[in-house]
Amino acid sequence: MKSWVLCVAVAACLTACATTTSSTGRKQYVGGMSQQQLDQLGAQAFTEAKSKGPISNDAKQNAYVRCVVNALVRQLPAAQQQVAWETAVFADKEPNAFALPGGKVGVNTGIFTVARNQDQLAAVIAHEIGHVVEHHHDERITRQMGAQTGVSLLGALVGSRYGDAGSSLATQGGSLLAQTGFLLPGTREQESEADVVGQRLMARAGFDPRQAVDLWQNMMQASSGSRPPQWLSTHPDPSSRIRELQRDVPALLPVYESARKAGNTPRCG
């Protein structure tokens, strides 16, 4: 009876969510939170990040980032364009950037050491915006909610047969499996998709898609000898990533050239 009740609970949890398809054709499991809730979480996380700082007050750097973000946002679907996008530059030497639901974009000053022109910076930011528009945060939270429910139920099921010791061991093992399986900040699948979506977005905005390749070559040089094993990394192997970006350049060059002819000629710095 206990097993039956737990199975019913799992089914109820799963039916609250939904399966959808991303712009690249990948099936996604989403719906753990409403868009409003995701936007609120994004805003809270952004506020917390800024409170921890340190924030760069360099006017030129801040204007540079805003210019690139604005150029990219103009190519997003209408609903995303209506969001009040906000940017922040953090005085941090670690080359990193992020975007959050609700239109929040953060860039570390360290990114300028590898993103050496506006097109390369656009490649970074477009990739991060790709995570937002493809609902990767929703997807990860939904999977986390499912994993937490599943791990708890697994512990209860094992405990009903083997006692508290078995329940504890099963829960610990389930948590580890969930973490290495899909509870990392971003899966390799999501990172690859954000690369594809971001490179498309930057081309439509009038940024050279070939520069995404150059960006990752710079990244490889900057992180030589310090990468973790690929199977535990949330990011694709850099060399694989470069090959995939190079693969899509021929199809995106006409998009880029058409965008420039249509007047999308960003002059951010």
Automatic annotation (TrEMBL):
<dbReference type="Pfam" id="PF01435">
    <property type="entry name" value="Peptidase_M48"/>
</dbReference>
<dbReference type="GO" id="GO:0016020">
    <property type="term" value="C:membrane"/>
</dbReference>
<keyword id="KW-0378">Hydrolase</keyword>
<dbReference type="InterPro" id="IPR051156">
    <property type="entry name" value="Mito/Outer_Membr_Metalloprot"/>
</dbReference>
<keyword id="KW-0732">Signal</keyword>
<keyword id="KW-0479">Metal-binding</keyword>
<feature type="domain" description="Peptidase M48">
    <location>
        <begin position="60"/>
        <end position="247"/>
    </location>
</feature>
<keyword id="KW-0482">Metalloprotease</keyword>
<dbReference type="InterPro" id="IPR001915">
    <property type="entry name" value="Peptidase_M48"/>
</dbReference>
<protein>
    <submittedName>
        <fullName>Peptidase family M48</fullName>
    </submittedName>
</protein>
<keyword id="KW-0862">Zinc</keyword>
<dbReference type="GO" id="GO:0004222">
    <property type="term" value="F:metalloendopeptidase activity"/>
</dbReference>
<keyword id="KW-0645">Protease</keyword>
<feature type="signal peptide">
    <location>
        <begin position="1"/>
        <end position="18"/>
    </location>
</feature>
<dbReference type="GO" id="GO:0046872">
    <property type="term" value="F:metal ion binding"/>
</dbReference>
<dbReference type="GO" id="GO:0051603">
    <property type="term" value="P:proteolysis involved in protein catabolic process"/>
</dbReference>
<comment type="similarity">
    <text>Belongs to the peptidase M48 family.</text>
</comment>
